[in-house]
Amino acid sequence: MGGRTKILSSPYALGALFIGLALMWVLQMRLAKEQATSFLNIVNELKGPGLTVSIGVNQPKWGRKKIYVAVSANQDSIIVDAVTLEGTTVFAKGKKESTLIGKTLSEIRDSDIQEPLYDAAKMAVDALINKIVDEKKSSSVEKG
Fold it and tell me: How many domains does the chain have?
């Protein structure tokens, strides 16, 4: 017990503790930024002529991992590419999600599947449907 009190009573111990915590926090923020940048680079690869891209995320209960899904769809509302980012650490990497490719946006939106992947995909699909509808409206206004 005496050695423990001696360490804590050192004038530098508390400062060293806070500096260590601050350095770990800075490292965590840097890794999180690198992860986000990496995922956005993967999402940018989904973009192309005639394609619309959107990102969705599930809303997990406490203690469950978040899943981000980026979906790319053509003007016919068919998903042509999808990637996910899932995990609980900053070391999670984006990966292709083939289960969504080839399905229509309405198939995903109207699905009864209650899985985190589909919850995130439904959010992305809702945004895509709105984007596609808005694009069709704006192109018809320009023609008219």
Answer: 1
